[in-house]
Amino acid sequence: LNEKLLKVLSYKQINMSGPLEGVKILELTSVVLGPWAAQIMGDMGAEIIKVEAPFGDSNRQLGAYRNKGMAALYLSNNRNKRSLVLDLKQESARNALLEIVKDCDIFLHNNRPQVMTKLRLEYDDLKAVNPSIVYCGTYGYSKHGPYGKKGALDDSIQGASGIASLNELVLGEPKYLPTVIADKTTAITVVYSILAALFYKEKTGEGQEIEVPMFETMVNFTMAEHLWGEVFEPPLAKAGYTRLMSHHRKPYKTKDGYISVLPYMNNHWKIFCEKAERHDLIDDERFKDLSSRVTNIDDTYSETGKILATKTTQEWLDILEETKVPAIEVNSLDDLFTDPHLDAVDFWKEVDHPSEGKLKMPGFPARFSKTPASIRRHAPKLGEHSLEILEEAGMDNKTINEMIDSKATVISD
Question: Is the pLDDT reported for residue 6 higher than 90?
Fold first, then answer.
């Protein structure tokens, strides 16, 4: 028995396309949060069925495109998936979804709870046909609080969670970060929450409902460092990590550009000052240890900036190369495509899409020694797999044709 088991394990290790091979996910999401979370799991080997309304994911229309409905933002967040169109307002489409759920491990959606109640697709509805289903709803705000009925997108959550106000403390007015940080941070939380529920399911055979609200996720994210003196009751200081609130915290100007340098730890500061031939700063009471440097952060940043302004970016990179002081040139978005490190680790992937031609894609950032992540499927056209998925669910031709006639589903050409 042990010999047979070893053979099976060895076979799986060699043939798995990713650590989540064999996991089946039904995804009912749009925009970035849900699609990116599902894509992460798809990259790791999960089978993803993306359910779309007849008009499709709104991101199909955003960004540059070669063909309508296959725009850049959609392509960046929907690889390793199959597309199924279902108009869930129609009973036949809802019935089809419940048939598909029977063979799924995970159901993921990012509709407001009230929408799922109206569609009769809450946890108990899916649990009735698949008791072991892991049901994950990701919302703007927890449905258990007074904000539960509010709509939400990245901008509103950046505002609600304190992210925008952090910029006000530094820049004088609240500003959103120029990235959908709430969407992507919540997406990562969705992934690790689902994986934890899958681990529990493996041990017990039991599914469960998961709620991942953006607001609570981002407050948790923001306050990891910014809770600061409010950790204590009564508070010993205001919320806000003082080092990050300094107006001087930004890339430093050199003679010919900008550089990111942070002589943070005590050994960093000592080495940096020695390399800069500023031994006087090592024993300066303002900078004698990490706590002192953070307390006097404006002076710390100011002195560091004066030093770095004396040489070119490359000169400083050469000087600090063999030290442990974090130092790197400041990249633009365009610079990332030719970054030598990303090139060496084969980060950027060029893939051939059957309708969209050659595409550039970021690779999966984590490396698995036995079950590597991969790009196995192109981002699908709307309804590209409707027919095959409905057939796999055991639906007969008559029922499928009726769904096509009523527009409960769409089969792409």
Answer: no
Residue 26, CA distances (Å) to 7, 94, 312 in order: 31, 13, 53
Q: Which residue has the tokens 């053979």?
A: 7
Calpha distance 337→342 (Å, rounded): 8
Q: 107 with 119: CB under 8 angstroms?
A: no
Q: What is residue 170's predicted lDDT score, i.e. its pLDDT? A: 84
**Which one-letter DSSP state was computed for residue 331?**
P
CA distance 368 to 362: 17
Tell me the C-alpha distance between 309 and 1, whole Å.
Answer: 69
- Rounded mean pLDDT, 237-256: 93
Separation CA 163–CA 26 (nearest Å):
32
Give the C-alpha separation, 230 to 233, whole Å.
Answer: 7
Q: What is the DSSP string of 119-142?
A: HT-SHHHHHTT-TT-EEEEEESS-
Q: Are 186 and 217 in contact (CB under 8 A)?
A: yes
| 411 neighbors 386 (Cβ within 8 angstroms) | yes
